[in-house]
Amino acid sequence: MRVDIITVLPELLDGPFSASILKRAQEKGLAEIHIHNLRDYSTQKQKSVDDYAFGGGAGMVMTMEPIDNCISALKANRDYDEIIYMTPDGEELDQGMSNNLSLKGNLMILCGHYKGIDERAREAYITKEISIGSYVLSGGELAAAVLTDSIIRLLPGVLNDETSALSDSYQDNLLAPPVYTRPAEYKGMKVPAILISGDLKKIELWRHEKSLERTKTRRPDLYKKYSE
């Protein structure tokens, strides 16, 4: 999989992709992540990428030209399955969306800033708009990193134990059950006996029951989806 991320602040994305699982995915050749500085595609003397909004009001708007130049240059080299714009008014990211996107080959992500991008860019190029929650960030870079992480970790071979992703919260509209590790007793606090019984069928049943219990209590909206 290849992910191209367009941003006005590329330095914000140095950290998330240079460590842990995302770093290993790139080293193994399972994923390519390319960061593009939008200012490199501006023809303005000061390399500006924003201007005042027509109609007045506070805040600046990302201009058409550099976005058009950048997206056109990337599209000239390959086809993209989705061109994604990270925006608070997009469809909220969930596990199902990440699962679907992990099956794609080439993704492009545009990070918003200021008051957003010129609407004409959305109409001309964007095929999918995604939000990571009902709140506003200073820019789309952190949201793009979250989205990219949620997708790439699902690629075959990225995780050491590929079955791990299948048991994550949200995969089946249930939250994950409680987990424990050694020692079996710590300061009087004991691991549930069933988990050290060696009876795999009973352990799986216990985990499922705990998932149901936790989801019903903490996320009744998810539990409703599961029950339907």
Describe the structure in your own words.
The protein is of the alpha/beta class. It has two domains: 2-152, Alpha/beta knot (3-Layer(aba) Sandwich), CATH 3.40.1280; 169-227, Trp Operon Repressor, Chain A (Orthogonal Bundle). Helix content is 33%, strand content 19%. It has eight helices and nine strands. It has helices at 20-27, 64-75, 95-101, 119-124, 141-152, 163-166, 200-218, 220-227, and strands spanning 2-7, 32-37, 50-52, 60-62, 82-92, 106-111, 128-131, 185-186, 189-190. The strands form three sheets. A five-stranded parallel sheet has the order 2-1-6-5-7. It has a two-stranded antiparallel ribbon with strand order 3-4. The chain has a two-stranded antiparallel sheet with strand order 8-9. β3 (50-52) and β4 (60-62) form a beta hairpin. α7 crosses α8. The longest helix has 19 residues, at 200-218. It is elongated, with a radius of gyration of 22 Å.
Supply database-style keywords.
single chain, 228 residues, alpha/beta, Alpha/beta knot, Trp Operon Repressor, Chain A, 2 domains, five-stranded parallel β-sheet, two-stranded antiparallel ribbon, 8 helices
